[in-house]
């Protein structure tokens, strides 16, 4: 059981570039989510999915897109990177939104 | 929208000292409560959780937390900390529609 995996671990982008952060889980969890972690602000929910084909916005969705074509994968797309998106991004999965979250190792993103 | 407040941003303790980290939330309905821990260089993992029943819950590594509904609080405690408890601790609150994390408390334990 690999749990929740994320790639890449580190990424540097220039303003305006686009990229996709990958997330996969092998626990057959219906619920998956993306958070960003910023100093002094804890984790904030970006987008979440309650199952394949179903996604919804969290607290801070602007500038990000998601899709969920399979139960296992939940990629996060940055359409046009901005310095304000410099952060550490965590993917998580669980049986439901209110249940224990299982986190991936994170992606540290720097936007110059 | 519900919010979660963690009062201490950085706590420094010596080994064997007792620990209490505060967590208060604003949501008044039925909630689930969590404490997660992030050790240096590692990802977040569950320390303990409260869904219902006994308001005093015990987690891993000797941690416990008490849910006081009247105070909207879920404080984390450990009677005697170790150097290996150095980490960042996050309180989280969820209901069926939302999950919110506190800003985190960084704990440094001096050997």
Could you please describe the fold and organization of this structure?
The complex is a heterodimer of chains A (112) and B (111). Chain A is mainly β and 112 residues long. Chain A contains no helices and eleven strands. Chain A is globular and about 35 Å long. Chain A starts with a strand and ends with a strand. The mean pLDDT of chain A is 94. Chain B has strands at 4-5, 10-14, 19-21, 24-25, 32-38, 45-50, 56-58, 64-68, 73-78, 87-94, 99-101, 105-110. Chain B has no helices and twelve strands. By secondary structure, chain B is mostly beta strands. In chain B, the strands form three sheets. In chain B, strands 2, 5, 6, 10, 11 and 12 form a six-stranded mixed sheet that branches. Chain B has a four-stranded antiparallel sheet with strand order 3-9-8-7, with no helix packed on it. A two-stranded antiparallel sheet of chain B has the order 1-4. Chain B starts with a strand and ends with a strand. The chains are: A mainly beta (112), B mainly beta (111).
Short characterization:
The complex is a heterodimer of chains A (112) and B (111). Chain A has no helices and 11 strands. Chain A is mainly beta.
């Amino acid at each position: 059981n690999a749990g929740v995996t994320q790639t890449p671990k580190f990424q540097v982008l220039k303003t305006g570039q686009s990229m996709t952060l990958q997330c996969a889980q092998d626990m057959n969890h219906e619920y998956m989510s993306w958070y960003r972690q910023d100093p002094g602000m804890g984790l904030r929910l970006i987008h979440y999915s309650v199952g394949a084909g179903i996604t919804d916005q969290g607290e801070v969705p602007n500038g990000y897109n998601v899709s969920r074509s399979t139960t296992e994968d939940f990629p996060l797309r940055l359409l046009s990177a901005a310095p304000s998106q410099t952060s550490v991004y965590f993917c998580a999965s669980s049986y439901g939104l209110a249940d224990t979250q299982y986190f991936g190792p994170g992606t540290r993103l720097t936007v110059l | 929208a519900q919010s979660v407040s963690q009062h201490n941003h950085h706590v420094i303790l010596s080994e064997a000292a007792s620990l209490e980290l505060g967590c208060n939330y604003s949501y008044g309905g039925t909630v689930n409560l969590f404490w997660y821990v992030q050790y240096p260089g590692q990802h977040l993992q569950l320390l303990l959780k409260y869904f219902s029943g006994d308001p005093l819950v015990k987690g891993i590594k000797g941690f416990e937390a008490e849910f006081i509904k009247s105070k909207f609080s879920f404080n984390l405690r450990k009677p005697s900390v170790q150097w290996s408890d150095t980490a960042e601790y996050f309180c989280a609150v969820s209901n069926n529609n939302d999950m919110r994390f506190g800003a985190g408390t960084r704990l440094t334990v001096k050997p």
